Amino acid sequence: MIRRLVSIVIFLPLAIVLIALAVANRETAPLRFDVFNPDNPALTVNAPLFVWLLAAAALGIIAGGVGAWFSQGKHRKMERKYKREARKLRFEAEDTRRKADDGETPLALTRSTS
């Protein structure tokens, strides 16, 4: 319930701002890819300004997500290591418990007489 309330409090104002931005910036704005000859129509794309603004925001969000994913790689690697270790220890504990139930003495619990 609180999560839904927080998302409404955050996303509703953001949606209002984006809608206002789109309505206020409906004029066509060119995006020129040729920096040496800006009048070249082959390398110019015309679209409403809000499209360019939303595309820039989307690229920023994607770039931030990719950067965060790469920076958290060492944490994911450690988690995989810990999961393998936990799985191994769980198997060993179950094996020891099974051997104890069968009446066998597991090797780890026998005392060496030297």
TrEMBL record:
<keyword id="KW-1133">Transmembrane helix</keyword>
<dbReference type="GO" id="GO:0005886">
    <property type="term" value="C:plasma membrane"/>
</dbReference>
<protein>
    <submittedName>
        <fullName>DUF1049 domain-containing protein</fullName>
    </submittedName>
</protein>
<keyword id="KW-1003">Cell membrane</keyword>
<dbReference type="InterPro" id="IPR010445">
    <property type="entry name" value="LapA_dom"/>
</dbReference>
<feature type="transmembrane region" description="Helical">
    <location>
        <begin position="50"/>
        <end position="71"/>
    </location>
</feature>
<keyword id="KW-0812">Transmembrane</keyword>
<keyword id="KW-0472">Membrane</keyword>
<feature type="compositionally biased region" description="Basic and acidic residues">
    <location>
        <begin position="93"/>
        <end position="102"/>
    </location>
</feature>
<feature type="region of interest" description="Disordered">
    <location>
        <begin position="93"/>
        <end position="114"/>
    </location>
</feature>
<feature type="domain" description="Lipopolysaccharide assembly protein A">
    <location>
        <begin position="44"/>
        <end position="90"/>
    </location>
</feature>
<dbReference type="Pfam" id="PF06305">
    <property type="entry name" value="LapA_dom"/>
</dbReference>
